[in-house]
Hints:
- This protein has one domain: Rossmann fold.
- The chain is 32% helix and 16% strand.
Amino acid sequence: MGEQRGSVRTVSGRPDTGHPALRLLALPHSGGRAESFIGWRDALPAAFPRTAVDLCAAQYPGHGDRLAEPPLEEVGAIAEEIVADLTRLPPADLVLFGHSFGSAVACEVARRCPKAGLDVVLLVASSAWAPGDPARPPRDEHLLSDEELWERLVALGGLDPVIAAHIELRDLLLPAMRADIAAHERYLGCPDSVTLHCDVHACMARKDPLVPVLAGRHWGRLTTGNASTDIRPGAHFHVFDDPAPLLADLARRVFTRTKGGASAHEQ
């Protein structure tokens, strides 16, 4: 990882090729860190063999090495900071990969990119409800007690078992996780409609206990661009199980879209 202390961190790049052709920005789940996506680094060259790709990931305030900063409690504020960081990087086509809560952040980043002069090739929403989906049951998990919320997060499998066993670490990490969850729940429940103009791909997991695979359908209603869905093996954190086929599929979709070959609402 680089030495930056802002939102956007470079996870993997190809400095010998000059400016990248493509920037893949991963936006983490509630409580997630930029370092969560280091495991994608080794699979990147095979997925994009002839393309200079920068793999980046967002580090939200209050997370990872920004733990001392107060977490932001509004999705739009998180997105504003990320877009500002992106404008300082060498120009490249942009793919936004939002996992769970990160999909909400991806929506707001995508909405701000055109005004900032950034070209979003594709937005991927992984294991996430789309904002405005009437099928989403109302949730108020951010109001759970510390013990209940921590148990819920541990059961989902998104926490290292070593971390999960330490009460001191729970007390240190839980405020940022709670802030993320609250921001996500408010965003999904907001009556204002979300309209995107980039292509959108919903990536759902067959055994996800939080988001059913049918939730992927609503993402296509948010965009004037092309939309597609995919159902993958695994549970809520499927993106970290075996990233190689995920990235290979992502590369295929990116190349199809940049060549103008995607059909609207393909499956």
